C-alpha cells in the first residue's frame, strides 16, 4: 500500500467502521463474531467475493473487488437490465448452495422485533401512524415458515458489484446465515422496486412477489430506528421512509 494518497472512510458508527486504503478495505468491528461469519461465508459462497488478505482482530483486511456497485439507495440505478439479471442469477446460485452450519434468524424473534420497532416509531411520531399501521399489516406476509437457504443477510444494492453485465463481487457477508430467500431479494431491490422484474429474470422460478413486498415493509420498519440512532437519515429521498410511504399508498 505504499504511496497511498488518502484514506477513505466508507462507513463508520459505534459498532463498526470500514476504511479504504488504496485497493484494501480495513473492517474494524467490536464483535469478532461478525468477522468469523464473514470469512467462513465468503469461503462457502459460490459467487465472486473479495479476497481475504489478513486478519488481526478486531481488523479484517480484504481486497477491493473490480467494477462498480449495482446502485445506491436513494438514487436510480444506472446498471443495465442484464446486470440486474446477472445479479439475480448470482443470488440464485447462493440460495441453491449448501446451507451454512450456524443458526439463522428465528421467526419469533423477527416478529418480536417488528412489534418493538413499530411501537418505537409510533411513540416517537417519526412517521404518520397510518403509514406504520399499514406497513405493519403488509409485513405480516413475511412472517411465515420458510425453507432455509444460504442467504447473504444484508444484500444491499451497494454490496453487489458489476462490470458491464457481469457480477464481479459480492461484499459484506457478516450477516450470512440460513434464512428466507425472499429476504435477500427484497433487500437488494429496496428503494429500487422498479428493477424487481430484471432481478427475477435472472433469479428464475420460485420467487414470491407478495412476500418480497412484505419484506420491503418489514425491513424498512425495523431498520429505521437503528439508522436514526447511528447518524443516518431514513427520510432521505428514495430511502426507507419513502419505501414505507409508497407501500401505504398502495393500500
UniProtKB/TrEMBL annotation:
<dbReference type="Pfam" id="PF01636">
    <property type="entry name" value="APH"/>
</dbReference>
<dbReference type="InterPro" id="IPR051678">
    <property type="entry name" value="AGP_Transferase"/>
</dbReference>
<dbReference type="InterPro" id="IPR002575">
    <property type="entry name" value="Aminoglycoside_PTrfase"/>
</dbReference>
<feature type="domain" description="Aminoglycoside phosphotransferase">
    <location>
        <begin position="39"/>
        <end position="213"/>
    </location>
</feature>
<dbReference type="InterPro" id="IPR011009">
    <property type="entry name" value="Kinase-like_dom_sf"/>
</dbReference>
<protein>
    <submittedName>
        <fullName>Phosphotransferase family protein</fullName>
    </submittedName>
</protein>
Amino acid at each position: 500500500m505504499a504511496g497511498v494518497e488518502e484514506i477513505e472512510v466508507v462507513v463508520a458508527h459505534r459498532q463498526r467502521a470500514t476504511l479504504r486504503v488504496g485497493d484494501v478495505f480495513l473492517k474494524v468491528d467490536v464483535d469478532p463474531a461478525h468477522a468469523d461469519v464473514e470469512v467462513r461465508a465468503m469461503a462457502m459462497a459460490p459467487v465472486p467475493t473479495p479476497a481475504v488478505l489478513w486478519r488481526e482482530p478486531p481488523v479484517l483486511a480484504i481486497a477491493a473487488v473490480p467494477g462498480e456497485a449495482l446502485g445506491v439507495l436513494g438514487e436510480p440505478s444506472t446498471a443495465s437490465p442484464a446486470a440486474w439479471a446477472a445479479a439475480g442469477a448470482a443470488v440464485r446460485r447462493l440460495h441453491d448452495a449448501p446451507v451454512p452450519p450456524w443458526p439463522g434468524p428465528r421467526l419469533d424473534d423477527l416478529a418480536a422485533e417488528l412489534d418493538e420497532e413499530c411501537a418505537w416509531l409510533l411513540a416517537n411520531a417519526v412517521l404518520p401512524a397510518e403509514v406504520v399501521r399499514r406497513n405493519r399489516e403488509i409485513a405480516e406476509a413475511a412472517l411465515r415458515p420458510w425453507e432455509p437457504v444460504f442467504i447473504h443477510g444484508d444484500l444491499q444494492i451497494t454490496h453487489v458489484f458489476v462490470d458491464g453485465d457481469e457480477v464481479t463481487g459480492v461484499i459484506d457477508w457478516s450477516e450470512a446465515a440460513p434464512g428466507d430467500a425472499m429476504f435477500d431479494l427484497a433487500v437488494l431491490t429496496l428503494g429500487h422496486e422498479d428493477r424487481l422484474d430484471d432481478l427475477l429474470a435472472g433469479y428464475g422460478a420460485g420467487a414470491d412477489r407478495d412476500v418480497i413486498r412484505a419484506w420491503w415493509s418489514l425491513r424498512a420498519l425495523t431498520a429505521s430506528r437503528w439508522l436514526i440512532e447511528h447518524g443516518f437519515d431514513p427520510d432521505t429521498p428514495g430511502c426507507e421512509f419513502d419505501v414505507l410511504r409508497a407501500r401505504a399508498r398502495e393500500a
